[in-house]
Amino acid sequence: MLYNQYIKKILLRRNKMSKPLIVITGASSGFGAEIAKLFNADGFPILLLGRRTDKIKALPLDFTNVLVESVDVTDKKSFEIAISKAEEKYGKTDLLVNNAGVMLLGNVLNQDPAEWKQMMDTNVLGVLNGMQIVLPQMVERQGGTVINMSSLAGKKTFTNHAAYVASKFGVHGLSETVREEVSAKNVRISLVAPGAAETELLTHVTDKSALNDYNLWKESMGGTTLASERVAQTVKFIYDMPQSVNIREIDIAATNQNA
Ligand code: NDP
């Protein structure tokens, strides 16, 4: 343990950085953008990934120690190249926030299977891709953290969410499995399971009737949903615990969310 801390210190000094590298996927909007703002304000070097880099570059950040790369998380090669580039500059990734995700509401009776595939590829395989890229060095140096963005839909069901629920139950399942596998190596795997929040998530839904039902449900609770900043604070809180403490999961939702 002491030896690892010593090595970490040397590496950080060599990179002339006081804080280690944080990688955030899906940083162009919603939760990811807020998580980026918090770590940026706290002086961490960060690698921000997403397909719409123009949106990431327009975020109100101090870009001195920010790298932005256009990465589709379903493309493991480009994901890996982006992380390698950042690690050359800032040292090994100490936190990966696997936040990128997509929610395409729809009923299995008539939803286009291409939408199921997009959710599985992004929400499940994208997360596995990220974990496989950063975990070997974390296991090797016996330190590091991965926080996966799941959902309350990763532990309970919601109408018109079948494929999304399947993908997020997948995130819960794989996170706990990998946590068990790497816990003895002092690597933390954690997840955040938010309830309904105001982001761009719903803008990709193509099924008008499913979207309408979702909006009616939100209105029935008074329309209040969770602010993205609260989810970002939750991620930061998990990371800021000592490495010897792993908050395995936090479920967070607006108080008035009834499901
Ligand atoms: P947004 O739509 O605002 O953000 C989603 C982010 O994911 C965007 O930055 C988008 O970037 C990125 N993304 C999507 N597909 C890909 C891809 N293939 N490769 C790389 N990046 C991708 O939604 P949220 O902020 O709400 O979503 C963030 C996470 O939170 C998701 O995993 C979502 O499932 C989860 N969540 C959201 C809830 C909500 O109510 N908002 C509730 C519970 C969980 P770009 O398009 O630029 O690539």
UniProtKB/TrEMBL annotation:
<protein>
    <submittedName>
        <fullName>Oxidoreductase, short-chain dehydrogenase/reductase family protein</fullName>
        <ecNumber>1.-.-.-</ecNumber>
    </submittedName>
</protein>
<dbReference type="InterPro" id="IPR020904">
    <property type="entry name" value="Sc_DH/Rdtase_CS"/>
</dbReference>
<comment type="similarity">
    <text>Belongs to the short-chain dehydrogenases/reductases (SDR) family.</text>
</comment>
<dbReference type="InterPro" id="IPR036291">
    <property type="entry name" value="NAD(P)-bd_dom_sf"/>
</dbReference>
<dbReference type="GO" id="GO:0016616">
    <property type="term" value="F:oxidoreductase activity, acting on the CH-OH group of donors, NAD or NADP as acceptor"/>
</dbReference>
<keyword id="KW-0560">Oxidoreductase</keyword>
<dbReference type="Pfam" id="PF00106">
    <property type="entry name" value="adh_short"/>
</dbReference>
<dbReference type="InterPro" id="IPR002347">
    <property type="entry name" value="SDR_fam"/>
</dbReference>
